[in-house]
Amino acid sequence: RRGRAPCPFPAGLMWLQQRDGAGLRHTCEQSDGLSRYGWLMHDGRSFGTQEIRDGALTLTTEFVKRPGGQHGGDWSWRITARTEEPGPAPLLSLFFYVATDEQGTLRPRLENGTRLAAVTGHTEELGSFTLTFLPPTADGGDGPKHASYNYLDAPSPGLHRLTDVVRSSLSNRFVFSPPGGRPRRRFFAVDAFRGLPASGEQPPSGGRLLLHQVTLEPPGRVEVTFE
């Protein structure tokens, strides 16, 4: 999501189906081979539902905005992942990020050193805010969903290169260990930022990226709140 202010802080979603040859997705382009993407309903301001079909995976995103205060109000954002994959579905990683340029501040709130539970921050346009990442639930929203968590804190080179930052930070040294004695699986996750190739551009000074990665077995649901 991006606000309508002249200098909004970027916050959004990337996703990765954990299979051989699968790529990190950030934007929906006609060249990506996605079978469907677009809004199912929205009013352009206070609510919206969109659907993205990436192979057997369907991502449904929903947002609701509550007006109030001096900076546009609060909003909540829900992402539901379902799959029609025959047999065991590949693991799915959802990457929720927030970034600022030199004029904003971000502070991570971690649980157990690996789960980014919330981000508090301040920008000139929005004032003080809290972005909270709730633990995933089952598809119907009932009961917790087992997940693995990873976290990245890196310099932000600008919105157009955020995908490169995440891609350069991925490592496959992580293991997903589901309950009930089911097979363990190795997966790619953000580990450490290793820098980017020089592009000749002058990156924003003081820009910062905070990213929360949730890896789970579809179906599942994740909710984010902005206050």
How helix-rich are the residues, as a percent range? under 10%
Structural class: mainly beta
Quick one: biggest sheet? 8 strands, antiparallel
Mean pLDDT: 85
User: How far apart are the termini?
Assistant: 14 Å
Characterize the overall form.
globular
Strand content: over 45%
User: Helical segment tally?
Assistant: 1
- Written as H for each helix and E for each strand, in order along the chain, the element string is EEEEEEEEEEHEEEE
Low-confidence stretches: 1-7
How are the strands of the largest sheet arranged?
Answer: 2-3-4-5-14-9-8-7
Based on CA atoms alone, the radius of gyration comes out at: 17 Å
Structure summary, number of beta strands: 14
InterPro entries: Glyco_hydro_63N, Glyco_hydro_63N_sf, Glycoside_hydrolase_63
Subcellular location: Endoplasmic reticulum membrane
Enzyme class: hydrolase
Main location: endoplasmic reticulum
Question: What attributes does this structure have?
Answer:
single chain; 227 residues; mainly beta; eight-stranded antiparallel β-sheet; four-stranded antiparallel β-sheet; 1 helix; 3% helix; globular; disordered N terminus; glycosidase
